[in-house]
Amino acid sequence: MNRQFFLISSIAASFLLLGSCNDKNDNEDITTTINKAGSVETMITTNHLDSTHDVLITTHKIWANYNLYKTVVHRDTVPALGIGTETGENEHGDTKEIKLQKDYEIYVTVQ
User: Fold this and answer.
1) Which residues of 75-89 are buried (b: 16+ CB within 10 A; e: fewer)?
2) Cα 109 to the chain's mean position, in Å?
3) pLDDT tens, 34-82?
4) pTM greater than 0.70 (yes/no)
C-alpha cells in the first residue's frame, strides 16, 4: 500500500511541476514606451577603462510635460573584475578558449 501511495504521489507531483513550467516570457514589467508626461528614464552601463578599472555610467533622463527636462549623468570608477575565459566559436564551428575581461552584473531595485 505504501509503495502504491508513493507512486501515485510521485506522478501527481511530477504533473504539478511540469504544469508550472512555462516557456512563454510573460514579463509584464517590460515596457516599449516611456510616459513622457512625467517619468525618469534610467540607463546603466559599464565600460572597461583599463585592466584594473571599469567605469559605471548611470544616465537619468527626466521627462516632464512631454519635454526632456534634464539629463543627469553619473560616472564612477570601480575596480575591474579581472580576466575570465569563455569558449568562442567561429563561422566554421571551430571552438577556442578566449580570455575576456569579466563584466559586472547589474541589478536594479525600484521602490
Assistant:
1) eeeeebeeeeeeeee
2) 12
3) 889 999 999 999 999 998 999 999 999 999 999 999 999 999 999 999 9
4) no
